[in-house]
Design brief:
By secondary structure, the chain is an alpha/beta fold. The chain is built from twelve helices and six strands. The protein has two domains: 67 residues, lambda repressor-like DNA-binding domains (434 Repressor (Amino-terminal Domain), Orthogonal Bundle); 184 residues, 2-Layer Sandwich (Endonuclease, Chain A).
């Protein structure tokens, strides 16, 4: 998930300026990359406008190319977005959502992640992100969580696979803090958290993770996310099927009270 718009005009402009200065100096991408801390292929991505340059890249590029004024001027126009462009369609709906129901199979939903958990997840991304990119995304994710305390309150329902809670994301201290955060959320009347035990042999969620959102007009849409991006689904038949599926999953998971007790046991094991 890039903080900048992949292929945006500002990124292409910065890349073109950087490449022109490097070639005018007679330096190779390998030589340039060694100084800024990038591989030759990563330098190529910046020069093509496919990768947002880190703050370190910008600072060291100005030094290496003896063109700090030109590099800084080009960097001022970079459109550093907190989210990737393909996430916009979902965000427009999330910010005004009435109800949000989500089935989590690999990681927790961003709306309930702690900073430590989010930082660990983003830090595991491949291709790797620069530290300033990770931090920007973490803070953007935390900003979204204002939805949980908004008035009127959103109705949030999560069904989480048990193994998601057992994976020690970020280490023992981080996952313990995350589990304690979930317990705090279960005390809010507008939030329901249920765990799907690994002991359940079969359930209705084998198609993968997804999210359902209820709009202010009381209409439902669905959202699914994969390796290459996310997709908002508005087709009534498809959304209806996913709505029915989520209802079945909730009936097959542990009730909220028993789920909270399971999370408490997991905390006690750490």
């Amino acid at each position: 998930m890039q903080d900048g718009v992949e292929g945006s005009s500002s990124m292409k402009m910065f890349g073109a300026v950087s490449r022109a200065l490097r070639e005018a100096q007679g330096s190779t991408r390998e030589q340039f990359g060694a100084h800024v801390g990038y591989s030759a292929s990563q330098v190529a991505m910046v020069e093509r406008g496919e990768r947002m340059p880190s703050l370190q890249f910008i600072a060291r590029a100005g030094e290496f190319l003896h063109a700090r004024v030109a590099i800084d001027a080009a960097a001022e126009h970079l459109e550093r977005r907190r989210y990737p462009s393909w996430f916009d369609d979902y965000l427009e709906r999330e910010v005004e959502v009435v109800s949000l129901w989500s089935y989590n199979t690999h990681v927790l939903h961003g709306l309930v992640q702690t900073e430590g958990y989010a930082r660990a997840v983003l830090g595991a991304r491949v291709p790797t992100l620069d530290e300033d990119e990770i931090e920007a995304r973490v803070q953007a994710r935390m900003t979204r969580q204002a939805l949980l305390t908004r008035v009127p309150r959103v109705s949030l329902a999560l069904v989480i696979e048990e193994w998601v809670l057992r994976r020690p994301v970020g280490g023992q201290a981080v996952i313990k803090g995350q589990l304690e955060r979930l317990l705090e959320l279960t005390e809010q009347r507008n939030i329901s958290i249920q765990v799907m035990p690994t002991s359940v042999e079969l359930h209705a969620g084998f198609n993968g993770a997804w999210t359902l959102l209820e709009t202010p007009k009381r209409e439902w849409v669905a959202y699914v996310e994969g390796q290459a991006g996310g997709l908002v689904i508005e087709d009534r038949e498809e959304v209806s099927a996913m709505f029915q599926r989520f209802g079945m999953i909730r009936s097959q998971a542990l009730p909220p009270g028993e789920s909270a007790k399971l999370i408490e046991r997991l905390v006690g094991e750490l």
